[in-house]
Write a structure and sequence with these properties.
With 637 residues, the chain is α+β, with helices and mostly antiparallel strands. The chain has two domains: 437 residues, 2-Layer Sandwich (Creatine Kinase, Chain A, domain 2), CATH 3.30.590.20; 129 residues, CBS-domain (Roll), CATH 3.10.580. The strands form eight sheets. Strands 2, 3, 4, 5, 6, 9, 15 and 16 form an eight-stranded antiparallel beta sheet that branches. Helix 3 runs antiparallel to helix 11 and helix 11 crosses helix 14. The longest helix has 23 residues. The two termini are 52 Å apart.
Length: 637
């Protein structure tokens, strides 16, 4: 968030004061660049490890405040936007020798500490790009971490966009989901990697980070499922972009830039271009009380905090973010890679980091200015294709040719990454170890996304989606304890989620979403044929506005048919004349037991599921309960 004490801008005076500081920071940064006031003799790397909290049923557990109380003496831990997310800020390491294994060990040690704290609260932690067991109602504002900066961010985005956040993502399945706050962004969990860059190299290095975003992402995808839908190989990319998009419909039409962005062009002269562009394009969302006089600090030879610039930069979400910071009293510049997902294991994450870091250095050495070899739109298109398809895509490279992602990585990029790490005197054992993980993963086409999708497809043949997703989460946690790279994992088994109980299932998780509907004006004969063709016993009846108005059952259709079969009707019988009008319904966030009680009490064979606008979103049927019963019987064999 840039600063711990940030708030929404509520008055014009506050906005104007913050904008003044923002401009002063830009001028100060310009002065520092021209006078060479940055550290250049050391190159550091860093990382941010995000993770999720889950309860014993593998559902989100909103316990990060309690976790922070137990971990309070460890300054590396911090909260995230949602109560079920946390973060570890790894200690920066000099980019050399055993830096990668040192970082891996530190993250593992801190995760062990988090595991112990979680156990005291009866919960667990999991590393995953998107938690498979997330449900739509997990993103109510009750799950917002209760800190002023998070309230301020949500309020500021709502003010610009309004409380209407529609997700529309298509993959194997399609997701259309409406939310009332930007908290949906908290579904994303990442592993951010930082590389300190010398000011004179920043332009070339930043452009390289854009070029390599696609192949690095294609080899590391780990977020294919959201709300039980199989979407992009790295669904985080689409989800993040849509969840914090502050543009209105008219602003979309004017081609205004989304707040989550890959960018629109190559960097040309300096880091200042990025900061200036972000000030021009994106309104101030947050501000903070700035105490420092940046120019007085510069006169005294002290590196200024540039706090206004940091705060604004924290609300613009470039996939490769330019960062200003201070280490040991000296100012530095760095590039933050925000592309990589959390998990599947820390070993996988450090391997991803090694691949990215090696490519950053190796390509700079081999190509220098990559803009001479590739158009920006090609790099951007590569990134989008990699997000959707992962390793199952073709990427254009700097030689102007198109390659299968796996071939490009194995034949061209891994050797370059190896040279880059060697150039920074990273230990050979580390290079072989971590790049070996990437090579094996790519050769076997076994990314985290591949493992999740294969497990999901296997499990849903004998279990409902909710139980399958819980099993995937349980297996993920178990494999992470061993820190075994994902390409060596066996597919998830139902037995992994031993604590699964149907009493903890919500209607949204087991209802049927493939629902066939008709209108009041449709004739009985047509709806009867539909039921026969699809082997279904219930059809929901909607009016012209898409509101649920009735329910047609096979029994009613047969009764109507028998009653009128010998009558010569001038007009055919319509569904509206025989349907159950205004049927009893249930909400998606009700528990399975509630649906069961209603259906048992009233002898219903089906129960429509509607949202707060009475729009049909699913159906609970007897078949759903039979499937759950079958799974329970399997457990007690």
């Amino acid at each position: 968030m840039g600063a711990p004490k940030v708030k929404a801008t509520s008055t014009a005076k506050q906005l104007q004061a913050f904008e003044k500081h923002l401009l002063k920071d830009i001028h100060a940064l310009n002065k520092m660049l021209h006078e060479g006031m940055f550290e250049i003799d050391k190159i550091r790397i860093g990382a941010e490890q995000e993770f999720c909290l889950v309860d014993k049923y593998y559902k989100p557990a909103g316990k990060n405040i309690e976790m922070m109380q137990l971990l309070g003496k460890n300054p590396l831990f911090t909260t995230e936007l949602a109560k079920f997310n946390m973060e570890i800020n790894a200690t920066p390491q000099i980019f050399a020798k055993d830096c990668l294994s040192v970082m891996e060990k530190e993250i593992l040690d801190n995760l062990d500490e988090a595991h112990r704290a979680a156990a005291k609260l009866g919960i667990q932690i999991v590393l995953t790009g998107i938690l498979p067991t997330l449900r739509k109602f997990d993103f109510s504002m009750d799950n917002l971490t209760p800190y002023e900066r998070y309230y301020a961010l949500c309020a500021s985005i709502n003010k610009l966009r309004g409380k209407n956040y529609d997700l529309n993502i298509s993959g194997i399945d399609e997701l259309f989901s409406e939310h009332d706050s930007p908290l949906i962004e908290a579904a994303n969990t990442g592993f951010q990697v930082h590389l300190q860059v010398r000011p004179d190299d920043f332009v070339d290095m930043y452009n390289i980070s854009q070029v390599i975003a696609a192949p690095v992402l294609s080899s590391s995808t780990n977020s294919p499922i959201l709300f039980g839908k199989r979407l992009w190989k790295e669904t985080r990319i689409a989800l993040f972009a849509q969840s914090v998009d502050t543009r209105s419909y008219k602003e979309h039409a004017r081609e205004m830039s989304p707040r989550v962005t890959f960018g629109d062009h190559w960097l040309q002269k300096s880091i200042l271009e990025i900061y200036k562009e972000d000030i021009i394009k994106y309104r101030v969302l947050l501000n903070t009380e700035v105490q420092e006089n940046v120019f007085e600090k510069l006169k005294s030879g002290t590196a200024p905090d540039l706090m206004a610039l940091k705060v604004h930069n924290s609300t613009v979400y470039r996939w490769n973010r330019a960062c200003y910071g201070i280490s040991e009293g000296k100012a530095h510049l760095r590039i933050e890679n925000r592309v990589l997902p959390a998990g599947p294991t820390v070993k996988d994450e450090i391997a991803n980091a090694a691949f990215w870091l090696g490519l950053m250095v190796g390509i700079h050495k081999q190509y220098g200015d990559v803009t001479k070899y590739m158009e920006f739109d090609v790099a951007k298109n590569n990134f989008l294709k990699a997000s959707v398809h992962g390793l199952d895509t073709k990427l254009f490279w700097l030689d102007g040719k198109s390659y299968a992602a796996g071939d490009l990585i194995i034949k061209e990029l891994l050797p370059i990454a190896r040279k880059g790490l060697k150039q920074h005197k990273v230990d050979k054992e580390e290079i072989d170890d971590y790049l070996g993980v990437i090579e094996d993963r790519v050769r076997e086409v076994r990314t985290g996304s591949y493992w999740q999708l294969k497990s999901f497809n296997k499990l849903t043949k004998k279990a409902n989606k909710e139980e399958a997703l819980a099993a995937i989460t349980a297996a993920t946690i178990q494999n992470q304890k061993d820190n075994t790279p994902v390409h060596k994992w066996n597919l998830a088994e139902l037995g992994a989620n031993k604590d699964w109980k149907p009493s903890e299932i919500f209607v949204e998780e087991f209802m049927t979403t493939k629902v066939f509907t008709a209108t009041e004006e449709d004739i009985v004969a047509l709806v009867s044929e539909m039921m026969d063709w699809q082997k279904i016993r219930y059809v929901a009846i909607e009016n012209k506005k898409g509101k649920l108005v009735g329910l047609a059952t096979s029994r009613l259709m047969l009764r109507a048919y028998m009653k009128h079969i010998h009558q010569e009707e001038k007009m055919p019988l319509t569904v509206g004349e025989v349907m159950i009008s205004n049927p009893m319904t249930i909400r998606p966030d009700a528990k399975l037991t509630e649906a069961m009680e209603i259906m048992t009490k009233y002898q219903f064979g089906a129960l429509p599921v509607v949202d707060d606008k009475n729009q049909l979103i699913g159906m609970v049927t007897e078949a759903n309960f039979l499937a759950i019963t079958n799974n329970l019987l399997e457990k007690v064999k």
